[in-house]
Write a structure and sequence with these properties.
By secondary structure, this protein is mainly alpha-helical. It has a domain of 50 residues.
């Protein structure tokens, strides 16, 4: 469980992580079940354990009772999702991404799926490049040998394979990663409902 004093993740990282979790939950039932169980387990914890898990653990191991403190639990603010919904709306408008994901393609042939995927790819790529400036996390070519010294940023680098011991780590770069350097989204007009990703269309 993360410590409450950990530095907050930057907005671009949270946006990428939200989309990654969205698609993983959508297409991986086992991951979705584990995520749901983790959510239920966290919600079931008493407020004191949710607020100070490490302090309680240290007190338990030492055998000393923690000093009573006045704990003020304030409801967490609702996460801001407007920007994420805006980006998803742009991907739908330019590439019909939501239509593609919601379509049952089990009965389609591989050729038909390939044609549709090519159109979705072209539109979504256009939307992404029009509103976001992306850069690889690592500059080396994939397959290159890299060394990770102590103090590397785990938000930027994920260790895979046979992970053991401590830094420095030496391995091969399998994916360069992506970082959002700039993000420019349209300013919503008054009365805009971000939850409407695409309006219904009625032909007269």
């Amino acid at each position: 469980m993360a410590d409450l004093h950990d530095p907050p993740l930057p907005w671009s990282t949270r946006l990428w992580f939200a989309f990654a979790c969205f698609f993983r939950v959508l297409f991986d039932p086992r991951f979705a079940a584990r995520a749901w169980q983790a959510r239920e387990a966290a919600a079931a914890l008493p407020p004191a354990e949710r607020a100070e898990p490490q302090k309680l653990e240290r007190a338990r191991k030492s055998g000393a009772a923690p000093a009573p403190e006045a704990v003020s639990i304030e409801p967490a603010p609702a996460p801001g999702v407007s920007s994420a919904l805006q980006l998803l709306s742009l991907l739908q408008r330019e590439g019909r991404l939501v239509d593609f994901l919601e379509q049952d393609i089990a009965s389609f042939g591989d050729a038909d799926v390939g044609v549709a995927a090519r159109m979705v790819h072209e539109g979504c790529r256009k939307a992404l490049r029009s509103h976001a400036k992306l850069a690889p996390v690592r500059r080396e070519e994939e397959g290159a040998k890299v060394t990770l010294e102590s103090g590397y940023n785990p938000s930027e680098i994920k260790l895979i394979g046979n992970v053991s011991g401590s830094a420095p780590y030496r391995g091969a770069l399998r994916h360069r990663g992506w970082r959002v350097d700039e993000l420019s989204l349209p300013t919503p007009v008054a009365g805009h409902d971000a939850r409407i990703l695409a309006p219904a269309e009625v032909e007269l």
